[in-house]
Description:
With 151 residues, the protein is α+β, with helices and mostly antiparallel strands. The chain is built from five helices and four strands, in the order αααββααββ. 52% of the residues lie in helices and 19% in strands. The longest helix is centred in the first third of the chain and has 19 residues, at 14-32.
Amino acid sequence: xxxxxxxxxxxxxxxxxxxxxxxxxxxxxxxxxSAAQRRAxxxxxxxxxxxxxxxxxxxxxxxxxxxxxRLWDEHDCGQVRIEQVDDGLLITHTGFAxxxxxxxxxxxxxSLRPMLEGAYDGWLHTLGSSATLTTRxxxxxxxxxxxxxxx
Length: 151
């Protein structure tokens, strides 16, 4: 008897396949990489997202947020608000972690935090932000991430 014949794929979809692959990929990175390696890897994933989805020539913060939100909305990845503060940009991203927590489990913060940093850093540097400025997480919860792009 072929055991594989018992594995039904009738209910499988592109989404469930992507969920399976993503959860295993993240689990493997988290299990096999040091904290510095994980951070670098997931920041690179974020930078790849930014490179693959350019924000165009956004001329102000509202246009930048609108451009990024179109991407996040399309993929059910939450929303962003961006505000100018005295020493940089305050980036508030809501709804992303809770949407992916069931897939990423305990690795949610370890993977999404640097990924968001890499994505926002990539977009802002593409628009001309100085190489001396970086994006870092100020605060993280299951429902909201606050990041800052600055010194």
